User: What shape does this take?
Amino acid sequence: MTDHGDRDRIGDLCERALGGEAPDRARLELLLSVDEPDVAEPLFAAARALRARYFGEAVFLYGFVYFSTFCRNECTFCFYRIGNRESPRYRKTVAEVVAICRGLAESGVHLLDLTMGEDPAFHETGHFAALGELVGCVHEATGLPIMISPGVVPATAMRDLRAHGADWYACYQETHNRELYGRLRVGQSYAARVAAREAAAEAGMLVEDGLLTGIGDTATDRADSLLEMHAAGTDQVRAMTFVPQRGTPLGGVAPPDRMRELVTIAAMRLLMPNRLIPASLDVDGIAGLELRLEAGANVVTSLVPPTVGLAGVSQSELDIDEGRRTVAEVTPHLAALGLRPAALVEYRDWVSHRLTARTRRVAGR
Ligand code: SAM
Ligand code: MD0
Ligand code: SF4
Assistant: This one.
């Protein structure tokens, strides 16, 4: 796709980003359509330089606890959509979740991401108080920062989750193209998902949004997503490649090229240099970690302990039982790139500064 003029323009906009000038829409679209490794490399190098400027060598590590895999929704991309008989269904007790979280905390993660499907046991009964209690128990047992990924929950539940110790709310739009959204999150309100992130921010939590790529999205769609995340002040911004899942409508499609995700990570870093950007182990496992870090990511997510019967989302089993999604396995890969796991205090400081800065932004409005 890229001619000599485009290569020059990409070099120029990387220079400008390093000089503090964020790419505009046209430049973002150009970046997001890069698909050749030699054209992408200068972009990745600029993304790494910006990461170093804001975060040094420190990388944050997130433990992932998929505590209920029951779901009432039918997202076309997801292994855990309702009615898929291929996916493992389980619901961990509070005691089990607490024990798993203690283990993750001892292993050195900086945050615990408590994730569930839109489990009818909460979503159909409205019994979100039980979620708050779960967060409270994990908070008490570990003292670690907590992210909650429960799907769309009411504003009252957000306040309760915050009160019990949740620092982050994760809820991915997947795409900011409403028509594509309608084909991915079938039957789910677009506006309600946006509103849920806003409610979480109002309740005092930091917020993560994310996009899926390789699922019918164009460079224009991805540029829209990045610009919306930028405008919303989203604290953590994610891109993941769609992994086709057996037993689902899109199960038969060819695995998408990973270059799009890598280029999206780098473009996110150029547009939003001070945000957290995950390198998820849930797409290509440990083998895909270094590429994502080299594209400018600064958080490793989806660390899952072996032997406790937990699943991933887009890779339900990859590298889990082998113990390869662990701090011990990840650390040498960081070192190979001149990076290191952050100290917990560095992570806590980042979270508290980000919250304080946001309070100021809101107050100044
Ligand atoms: N059920 C909640 C929800 O959907 O918001 C929480 C689960 S959330 C962790 C699931 C996320 O994993 C989705 O939003 C999507 O971005 C990602 N995901 C799910 N299936 C995937 C797949 N097959 N390939 C890549 N990413 C996937
Ligand atoms: C991950 N499997 O980090 C997890 C998940 C949910 N907040 C995160 C998509 O890749
Ligand atoms: Fe359910 Fe979340 Fe999967 Fe959608 S992405 S089917 S809401 S678990």
